[in-house]
Design brief:
mainly alpha, 0% strand
Length: 279
Amino acid sequence: MAGLPLFSGLEFRAVILVVMTIIAIVYVMRYAKKVKDDPTKSPMYELDLQRETHLELNLEEHPFGLGKKLVVLAFFIAIGLLVFGTLKLGWYYAEICGLFLGLGIVAGICDRMTLDEFGNAFAQGMGDMAVGALVVGFARAILVVLESGNIIHTMLYAASTVLDSLPGVVSAEGMYIFQCLTNYKIPSGSGQAAVTMPLMAPLADIVGVTRQTACIAFQLGDGISNIFTPTSGYLMASLAMAKIPYEKWAKFILPLIGIWYAMGAVFVAIAHIINLGPF
């Protein structure tokens, strides 16, 4: 959409990846040490005490025998089929759902589950997913309202007119902030690119920002908040499955998001200063 060569700017993005990953590792390790020293420091401490289910990790009562090994093997085969199907056969939701449904049936057979055991396990799994499915629907409903009411397009136009009047590095940072905010309304990376980049790419030419810098601003703005934005269906579904309230997750992840945002602004500024190209 920006007309850039494939894999251009790869080295710069690799540096961003390494730095952001190191920051995340340090953050999580410090948090883990803090909770290990004092479990009450965890936002989930009180809720964890009230958990109705507990993981049973006694290998003597639940040996990792042939059946479970076959289940693991079936899982990896399914992942291989998933990759092949999506890349070569154009699989999408229907095919992927069928694949994992089949995996569940094969897993039950491999583990020698009775029909009652399989039915109960399947029902329990569906029950755990039900809340997540509802949350995904609500998150999608928000996007439908924003898109159908042309609210997103109005906001895009207003933002582009503001950025058009700003100089150099300020425009680059403005693009970055704009992409960060847009991701809360359009959590889909491809969707956000389709909506914003046709405006941001030519706007970058006008204000003297390289298109590569505009892409960096988009990728950072789109990527950082994906593990925080409440309109992200897969995030809300994951939290629902793990039974982690969103406010607890936000309390844990917000400091890391803030650090990432600050580093993202630094990288966008560097990209502009060095005229990251090829253009």
